[in-house]
């Protein structure tokens, strides 16, 4: 098992995540909109978990709760046993849009987290290391408008990695990239995860992407999201898109999402 092997190579790299009977709702003009219903997911340190579900079912909401950006209406979330109540650099999110500051260089964008913590002066090497990890060292002085979409998303990834996260939270990070860049970055993500060993939560709308990347795929129902299936993907990396085992799982997942896999 890759997760286990990674956990041994990187004993403290990833945190355990326990989502326990979490429910959430939003108040819209006095009417309650239920978004998450009794969601329980237990993630082992170093696992790569993909979350799939219909658009608007509550996936991003769940990620915000894991990040500590919101508090759940019911249930609890824990990182290594400690209750999650607020954001922390050990749990960082990468969104679909890189949201870089256009007036800051690549290096200065990546440095933001350390700057905010007031530790940049002594930790400048971490910015260099994060840029190196995503292969952008030679673009350290470039500005966001000089980057391709894939490069901008790599900068956003480096900006997260500079925090040395124990849980990396990815909300459709490759969703806006062209398909070639996407495939390249999928391989890069796996390599990064294998090298660093952080626990990864990835929301994607692409079943194939989930199956190429994750050791576990969780499928949610329509809103309010509840766990419909929790599927183990027992295949070594790198994975092959044509693998019949993965094709079978893909059919199963698309069926759960109410789609026919005819191609
Ligand atoms: N801050 C908010 N206030 C009110 N409604 C929200 C808020 N955030 C999300 N929602 C609603 O909650 C539902 C789930 O949203 P979201 O978690 O973004 O879904 P997903 O990421 O699965 O597409 C949607 O109906 C959305 O309109
Ligand atoms: Mg979303």
Automatic annotation (TrEMBL):
Residue stretches making up the ABC transporter domain: 17-247
Signal sequence, renumbered to the chain: none
Keyword ATP-binding (UniProt): yes
SMART domains from the UniProt entry: AAA
GO molecular function: ATP binding; ATP hydrolysis activity
Pfam families, per database record: ABC_tran
Gene3D superfamilies: P-loop containing nucleotide triphosphate hydrolases (3.40.50.300)
Keywords per UniProt: ATP-binding, Cell membrane, Membrane, Nucleotide-binding, Translocase, Transport
Similarity field: Belongs to the ABC transporter superfamily.
PANTHER family per record: ALIPHATIC SULFONATES IMPORT ATP-BINDING PROTEIN SSUB, TAURINE IMPORT ATP-BINDING PROTEIN-RELATED
Role this protein plays: Involved in beta-(1-->2)glucan export. Transmembrane domains (TMD) form a pore in the inner membrane and the ATP-binding domain (NBD) is responsible for energy generation.
Protein name: ABC transporter ATP-binding protein
Organism name: Bradyrhizobium frederickii
